[in-house]
Amino acid sequence: MTDEEMLQRVVGALAPGPAELSGFRKGGRLLLGIPRQAEAARRTLGLYQPQRPAARVMTGVFRILADRGLHHRLLPRLSVSPSTARVIPELAGIEPATRGVLLGSPEHKVRRAVATYRNHGTWEVAKIALGDEGHAILASEARALGGIHPFTDAAPRLLGIHRGGDLTIMRMPYLTGTPLDSGETHGVFGLLDSWKRDLPRRRADQFDEWPAIERALSVSAEGNLVIPEIQFLMLQPMIRHGDFARWNLLRNTDGSILALDWEWGHPAAMPGLDLVHYFLQDQRLVRRLPHAEGIAATLVRMRETGSFSLFREAGWPNDPMLPVIASLAYKQGAGHQENSAVLTAALSHWAAAR
Predict the structure, then answer these.
(1) 205 and 166 within one domain
(2) What is the spatial distance between Cα 285 and Cα 203, in angstroms, rounded to a whole number?
(3) pLDDT tens digits, one per residue of 238-270
(4) Edge-to-edge strand ranges of the sheet holding 249-251
(5) Which of 158, 175, 192 represents a domain boundary (last residue)?
């Protein structure tokens, strides 16, 4: 399915009327379908949180143009035909002119998109996925949000999950805020600390993450050496986001932080994995450092920010490489991220320091 076809499907699922959108492309592919209406355009652009500075500047320019209603003069027009799809009753109040879409990567195993629109006068955002596997992904996130909400107000509120044909739509309020800058930690540690659960400590191999960690580590000699170093640690359960990176965080006007995209969330998980992921993702995806250098830079940032104390309070020993290895092994073993090369580098670093 092409990007244009996916856009047609998503826009048509939200409301049956035709649409005139502006196409925002990146790297030759269609990324955004932006409505002409100024507020809807600004909110659609707000769905895209680029990681690299140049892309952030470019997106900021288009947000300024959208505020003035000028964006459609610089972007190519996309015409979306009327849809014959059955309208989901909960979406019957959508104003057709407010529909905007951020398309997911075509490289994803399951085609997905994020849309924004005004429904019965209220701005919403919806995650949309195709097929049974897409439904399973969104249903899993909906369950995670349900399990997490009693313990934190830093996650979006679920408005509903609906299925129409082969599309699943998960609705949430549209959350506003400012993205975090590269390396920013203000409020991040406080948020993670608030996610500690008032539960007894448990052995590392009793957490749900353990099978994935053990699976990823057991394929190498160094990995097998580190397994008993982690397996018997007594750790404090905490909420896990699963993709705790700054582009999944928004800061409210009161300074509090909201976390988006809880696809891999868990209400009582192994501690420390999100903190490692937060630092390491910047080194890997933004600075694009080689694996060994990225790990070294992550350790430096954790030391500079005093985050080692958070690990120790959760039960990790003084060796900072152990939570780094556990975080990488979990993402690799669970199939969330290709981490084999960087995990090998982390294991080599750990073995050399023994």
Answers:
(1) no
(2) 32
(3) 999 999 999 999 998 888 999 999 999 999 999
(4) 178-179, 249-251, 257-259
(5) 175
